[in-house]
Automatic annotation (TrEMBL):
One of its GO terms (molecular function) is mannose-1-phosphate guanylyltransferase (GTP) activity. GO terms for biological process: GDP-mannose biosynthetic process; polysaccharide biosynthetic process. Residues 5-269 form the Nucleotidyl transferase domain. This is mannose-1-phosphate guanylyltransferase. The keyword Nucleotidyltransferase applies. Keywords: GTP-binding, Isomerase, Nucleotide-binding, Nucleotidyltransferase, Transferase. It comes from the Bacteria. It comes from Acetobacter orientalis. SUPFAM superfamilies: Nucleotide-diphospho-sugar transferases, RmlC-like cupins. Residues 281-330 form the MannoseP isomerase/GMP-like beta-helix domain.
Length: 453
């Protein structure tokens, strides 16, 4: 379900809201101001729309031109916040975690803020419930004076093997590293200047040379590319003497695998977690999810079955981490399923591939009210558009044509064309492409409302 073009953070895995939306609402619940989001340039419109759906105030969205891990992203966020308040307190949250019990979360954040105001860099330690080998650990040290329930960090521990994880659980005083931090921006930047000066240098330069694009802030690519590709743990948390840990009482998971998602989901009397159009018979302890067709499972125990429009996964829960190996194989074989779904989102709406052969392809295109595709042309294909819902305003060379349901238009190879939705309901049309080459890169954008030229 999680693909490069539509990653886990944007999926509604638990409930009706995506992981990102739950994270945004979580910050508001504990009294934070408008969120500052650092994200991949490719996902900017999806993220902006998801945030708009759940937040009345505007979020500040900073776009990374390339991925450089968490340390440069956090440094950029700190510099951005410092422009308004050099002593602002930031709460850093990955947008792909599940947290239950908002009251307990609020109490932990309050302790972390107190520690941050004392000049400390606070992190949250999640009490382990089993010997997990997929998380890093934090070893608790002495109590922090002045903040009840906060402790100095004795050591950060790498992801352990099973035997070491069992020892951590038996001894106590070890916590899962949640990847969440609370700090004053001036403290963080001073410590990063000491331990990771190149991160600070290039993060600051990338923000100073930023460009504003619609509602987004674009970091300077040349500067940000020079930033080290390093996590905040390696760059700072494991080196600074200012780290403290807040042992947390709320339930937390990074939802890193299907078996973890099964644990968090509501279950029937046979411990099956069922999502979508699903039937089970004589099954126990299974996670079965369908994003479309009826999916039936019989006579299986502890299985994971996930069905999407273009792929099916069947595995034992104990092998859920092996999905990563399958994805690696798909990438090596150049399979599109490793990076994209059949449904591809765009700032104006989305398109979905229905069928594809050597010289033709059929798509369903949905354009949001007021949405407008780029003015474009194709060198290798022609297109037929048939409106099946809503109203379309089509530009074809020098003509403008208004199309309603059951009306169509032909766009010859090389013609300059554009599609708009002037109505108040979504526009749905069927597109039939034909030609020698049907790739998405056969688009010459002449004008674009979303600055994608």
């Amino acid at each position: 379900m999680s693909r490069a073009s539509y990653p886990k953070q944007l999926l509604a895995l638990l409930g009706q809201q995506s992981m990102l939306q739950q994270t945004v609402l979580r910050s508001g619940h504990v009294g934070c101001g408008a969120p500052l989001i650092v994200c991949n340039d490719e996902h900017r419109f999806l993220i902006a729309e998801q945030v708009r759906e759940v937040l009345s105030e505007k979020a500040q969205i900073i776009l990374e031109p390339v991925g450089r891990n968490s340390a440069p992203a956090i440094a950029v966020a700190a510099f951005a916040a410092a422009q308004t308040d050099p002593q602002a307190v930031l709460w850093i949250m990955p947008a792909d975690a599940n947290i239950a019990d908002m009251d307990a979360l609020g109490a932990s954040v309050e302790k972390a803020v107190q520690a941050a105001q004392q000049g400390r860099i606070a992190t949250f330690g999640m009490k382990p419930t089993h010997p997990e080998t997929g998380y890093g650990y934090i070893e608790q040290g002495a109590p922090l004076p002045g903040v009840e329930g906060a402790f100095e960090v004795k050591a950060f521990r790498e992801k352990p093997n099973k035997q070491t994880a069992e020892l951590f659980l038996k001894e106590g005083g070890y916590f899962w590293n949640s990847g969440m931090f609370v700090f004053r921006v001036d403290v963080l930047l001073a410590e990063m200047q000491k331990y990771a000066p190149d991160v600070v240098r290039y993060a600051q330069e990338a923000l100073e040379k930023r460009k504003v694009d619609l509602d987004f802030i674009r970091l300077d690519k040349a500067a940000f590319e020079n930033a080290p590709d390093i996590s905040i743990d390696y760059a700072l948390a494991e080196k600074t003497d200012l780290s403290v840990v807040i042992p947390a009482d709320f339930t937390w998971s990074d939802v890193g695998s299907w078996d973890a998602l099964w644990e968090l989901s509501a279950k029937d009397s046979a411990e099956n977690a069922l999502v979508g159009d699903v039937l089970v018979e004589d099954a126990r302890g299974c996670y079965v999810r369908s994003e479309g067709p009826l999916t039936a499972v019989a006579g299986l125990d502890n299985a994971v079955v996930v069905v999407t429009a273009d792929a099916v996964l069947v595995t034992h829960k104990s092998c859920a981490q092996d999905v990563k190996k399958i994805v690696d194989r798909l990438k090596k074989e150049g399979r599109l399923e490793a990076s994209a779904h059949r449904k591809c989102y765009r700032p104006w709406g989305y398109y979905e591939s229905l069928t594809s052969e050597t010289r033709f392809q059929v798509k369903r295109i949905v354009v949001n009210p007021g949405g407008k595709l780029s003015l474009q042309k194709h060198f290798h294909r022609s297109e037929h558009w048939v409106v099946v819902g809503g109203v379309a305003l089509v530009t074809r060379d020098q003509d403008e044509v208004l199309l309603r349901e059951n009306e169509s238009i032909y766009l010859p190879q090389g013609s300059v064309h554009r599609l708009e939705n002037p109505g108040k309901i979504p526009l749905t049309l069927i597109e039939v492409q034909s030609g020698a080459y049907l790739g998405e890169d056969d688009i010459i954008r002449l004008e674009d409302s979303y600055n994608r030229n």
